[in-house]
Amino acid sequence: MKLKAVVWPVLFLLAAVFIEASFLSHAAGGAVLTATGCRQLPPAAAAGGGGACAGVVAKPRIALVIDDFGINGRPGVEEMFSIKRPLTFAVMPRQPASRQLARRAAAAGYQVIVHLPMQPFQGKKSWLGPGAIMAAMPAREIKAVAAADLDDIPYAVGFNNHMGSLITSREELLRPVIEEAAARGFFILDSRTTEESRLYPLAGKMGVPCIQRDVFLDDIRTVPYIKKQLNLLAAIAQKQGGAVGIGHVGHQATARAIAEMIPELEARGIELVYLSELVYGRFPGAVKTPAVLTPPRR
């Protein structure tokens, strides 16, 4: 009798654990939630998994992030606003038109993130703009500059790095920035401006949702080249479930190529989504992440 009194509760507990685990596995399509908040596919489904950690989805998904919003009169801005699909606009802090464009983007249904300037290994300092994170700064100053930058853009829900090959290669310089992102509930996109970037792995260690760029769309600013890159992005998404492409304003070719490619991409069963939907690996049929997730901070 004493043995039965011990064995039955243990068996009941084991059964409950098994049932709960089976339910969670089914709900996630066999995926596992990683430390970064992204769902990792089972080995058979994740072959070749790269930057965009997406869950099991009904169709391949791509997130298009458009950098360099914020400077008045830049070519390509109005063309991007004419694309009526989920896009994510990366807005540079402390620029003349930054806050106005961020509010306009959010009101129009686009997702907004901060395009955080960081020191590169090479390049003109003038390319960074105001509010840049510099390697010579002590940690306290990096933290203060990052906080001001992240708070400057209304409706922002995350950030990616503008330039930043030097900063992103050094964890001690990144840590204060990631801490500020975490304090605001932001996610992070590692633009991967260098193969030595530590932003993605360090954010994962610190428990901050993060994703990596898969393809730069417009290193060559011609419509045929950008279409070729969009096809590459689509192929990656078809292979791993989701992919992130980065383009830029400052010229009109990227907006034109995207607009012309949308019908073809959608005919191939590829869905355009907000960046956050790949970061958080939403389940099939889940409500899309709205573009406006937080009110303006000031």
TrEMBL record:
CDD domains associated with the record: CE4_DAC2
Transmembrane regions: none
Signal sequence, renumbered to the chain: 1-27
Keywords from the named record: Signal
UniProt keyword Signal, yes or no: yes
Domain of life: Bacteria
An annotated GO BP: carbohydrate metabolic process
Pfam families associated with the record: Polysacc_deac_2 (PF04748)
Protein's name in the database: Divergent polysaccharide deacetylase family protein
